[in-house]
Amino acid sequence: MLIDKLREYSKEDVYPFHMPGHKRINYGMPDAIGIDITEIDGFDDLHNARGIIEGEQERLAEVYDSKQSYILVNGSSCGNIAAIFDACKVNEKIIVGRNCHKSVYYGCILRRLQVVYTMPEVSHQGIVTGTKIEEIARVIEENPDARAIVVTSPTYEGYVEPLEEIVRLAHDNKMKVIVDAAHGAHLGFDKYFPENPVKSGADYVIMSMHKTMPAMTQTAVIHVNTWDRKIDTYLRMFQTSSPSYVLMASISQGMNYLEENPDLFENYGNLLRDFYEKTKGLKIFDILQDKNRDPSKIVIICKGGLSGKDLEEILREDYRIQVEMSSFNYVIAMTSPMDTPEGLDRLAQALEDMDLTYGDIENDYDTIAFEDVFTSDKKLEIYEPLDSERELINIFKSGENRISAGMVSLYPPGIPICVQGERITAEQINLIKEALEAGLTVTGLEEKTLVEVVI
User: Would you tell me how many other CB atoms lie within 10 Å of the CB of residue 433?
Assistant: First the structure.
């Protein structure tokens, strides 16, 4: 049973370099059952906040410097969708980063929007390193009728976009800016980290509190820098009508914890500085350190004979460390202000040990050209395949040049390889094949080979 497995796991000495950001450390939360209530008198209503919940949202707006903030209990996904609905009307055009999370695509489908893409830069490891401002300017200039642009910053691997420049370009062209900052709720609290994305002036900034802050899974917040009250309606539509007071309380207590520990982020930054210093001499691993990147995402690239999946399994089985994800030849260790010196020391020591143990293995692991994967050969609008005749085919035998009727993604982080309405390319098929052979999780396929296409 799930509850038994969770209880057993909670007793194991496995250090969590993954979300949620509370890292299974009780930061002052009481027993969940004891505070699990419904909208009874005196406790306000998330969907008509006029009391204590309204006060919590005002506190979030003050902390993050937004005009208005709304608590989300359905994760950043519902915030992305609500922002898209608020920014665009049916059949209007929207500019979307090709590396956006699948929830952005779902929002565009539901709103029946015309989607045009900005194409990000991608490293040979498959890491999205950002989008050139020239690319964003080009797409905006070529699509002056677009109503909004969606940008992911920071990315799953921690890269941040030049948000102030993007906002200026978009606003000069009367477009709204939606920033999916699901991985950025911790930004701006210390100068070691990139700036708080809300300060860019974007119209909507969506943050997952549970990813990088002390808060429970599924908690998020949307910051709105406009006074359009329609967003209230869309949030009611896309969130549960029975919002969890336990989840809302976990955000509240997270904010309390920050107030009670004013040195939390300074200490957090120092821990990360120490880790990067300790690991800078490794031979078979590169610890990613770029200027335009959030250092809280520890990206460990394998230069030796290990794959990312190998590294994840060795860390878990031999060192009792669970990372957030593994890809072809790198892993992500997610940190938060709740990480401990012991945890980061354990990871550093494990990498040092492995550097000696596996240093003689030859690297025969090859990767494919990721820059050829993220393309847009749109044949139908993103929502049209839902109303089209479809069939299941073997993607490896007859998928090339067919029009995808669904999304195929590497998960995490959930960035689509194939998008509905677009032609499936040989490069995308090769990537999916390589991912399955490497033991990575691919969503959107049935029985690992079948994909839905338009007839």
Answer: 15
What gap in Å lies between CA 325 and CA 364, rounded to an integer?
22
**pLDDT (tens digit per residue) in 117-131:** 999 998 888 899 999
Which among 129, 126, 125, 133 is positioned nearest to 149, based on CA atoms?
Answer: 133
Residues paired with residue 258 on neighbouring β-strands, in sequence order: none
Helices (H), 297-447: 308-319, 341-357, 395-398, 426-437
Whether residue 279 contacts residue 287, with contact meaning beta carbons closer than 8 Å, is answered with: yes
User: What type of residue is 414?
Assistant: G
Whole-angstrom distance between the N-terminal and C-terminal Cα of the chain?
42
**pTM (two decimals):** 0.96
How far apart (Å, rounded) are the C-alpha atoms in residues 241 and 236?
7
Which residues touch 385 (CB under 8 Å, ≥6 apart)? 403, 404, 405, 406, 420, 421, 454
Residues 6+ apart with CB under 8 A from 440: 309, 326, 327, 328, 410
Distance CA(454)–CA(450), nearest Å, equals 13
Q: Is residue 268 classed exposed, middle or buried when 0-12, 13-18 and 19+ CB atoms within 10 A define those classes? A: buried
Question: Which pair of tokens denotes residue 143?
Answer: 């699509």
Helices vs. strands in the chain: H and E counts, helices first: 14, 20
Structural domains present in the chain: 2-20+262-357 (3.90.1150.150), 33-260 (3.40.640.10), 370-454 (3.90.100.10)
β-bridge mates for residue 393, sequence order: 451
207-227 pLDDT, tens digit per residue, is: 999 999 999 999 999 999 987
d(CA 343, CA 362): 30
Q: 295 with 158: CB under 8 angstroms? A: yes
Triad 154, 221, 174: Cα angle to 5°: 70
Cα(218)–Cα(172) distance, integer angstroms:
35
**DSSP codes of every residue in 83-107:** HHHHH--TT-EEEEETT--HHHHHH
